Amino acid sequence: MRPLALFVRGREVPRAVLCGAVVTLVAVVLSGRALEVPDIRYLTDYSVPIAAVVPVAHAVVLGTALFSPMAVLEEGAARLMRGYESLHVVLLTALGLVWTAVPLLAGLPGHVFASSVRNVVGFLGLAMIGARLFGSGLAWLLPLVTVGPTLLLGVGPDNTPEFWAWPIQPGGHLGATLAAAGLWVLGLALFLLLGPRRSERDEAL
């Protein structure tokens, strides 16, 4: 159990769990509210349930626990670490899904829950992709960069989400679900096969 405990502590999972719990409590309090989308192109009146936007915060929190700052040292135990890493990302995803389920206790509608589940999976995939592109310290970048333009530009003139705006599509939307699942699978593949992008400091070690 000691290697597993060191693995968890090295990725600061306890801190991520605590931060995620705080975000979840905020989501419970705001579960019945909606975020008015300020569409800057057509001035349409469109709102997104806050519970469907909160997953980006979950993904940012979980993204901080994906990789270890001692990844170079861990390469010496690559086979053992690979098994831990596979289980680790699955458990982090499951934790994100549990966090999205908690607002159900406050009466969150089922279709909003479906949107939340889809979004936490998709944004976590973006966090894994971001870690590969920009380094583990910037795993949060892609989720945040994605949600802003989506909220501002993702509603069309017919007052419905654009085809590419998967985070604000209704729950159960097939295209949005496939997009989120695809991002997670791609992120997982990059996570397991390549790991985070190394910095110049890493290369010098």
Automatic annotation (TrEMBL):
Question: Mind listing the UniProt keywords for this protein, alphabetically?
Answer: Membrane, Transmembrane, Transmembrane helix
Residue ranges spanning the membrane: these are 50-73, 85-106, 112-131, 138-156, 176-195
Q: What is this protein called?
A: Uncharacterized protein
- Organism, per UniProt? Streptomyces alkaliterrae
State the organism's lineage. Bacteria, Bacillati, Actinomycetota, Actinomycetes, Kitasatosporales
